Amino acid sequence: MVKIRKVAAVAAVLGGLLAGPAYAQSVEFSKEKFSEDKQGLKEALRELKAGDAEYQADPARYALALPHYLAAQQFNPDNAELNIKLGDCYLHSGTKAQALSYLQRAQKLDPSADPRTHYLLARALHLSAKWAEALKEY
Q1: What is the residue extent of each domain of the chain?
Q2: What is the pLDDT of residue 126?
Q3: What is the pLDDT of residues 55-81, one digit of tens each?
Q4: The pTM is what?
Q5: 31-38 — which CB contacts under 8 Å span 24+ positions?
Q6: Superfamily of domain 36-137
Q7: Apex CA 81: angle with CA 104 and CA 76, to 5°?
């Protein structure tokens, strides 16, 4: 009887751990992560750099940054910072609705990647008429 209780207790603890929230993890653009595709990494980093030059310009040139970021994202869709930048670019474009999926993905990958994540996600939710969800993010 004691063994059954111990097994049940262990099963309950393990079940709780396994059923807990599963968070994805942001993947950096690094040689360690992409050691098998050095050329692809090199091209993605070049696109990132070109996108950052447009994104960080004063004033920011979101429309010019977007194609560079999309090219880099094809190589590594699991980078939270890149998904935030893509979402921000789309929020400043004529196709604002496309921002939502990138910002949601960024938040799942790393909620603390950028202090603006919640605000940008709230704007995207707001523009998608998801009022209750937007309020939670603001």
Answers
A1: 36-137
A2: 97
A3: 999 999 999 999 999 999 999 999 999
A4: 0.82
A5: 34/75, 34/76, 37/75
A6: Tetratricopeptide repeat domain (1.25.40.10)
A7: 90
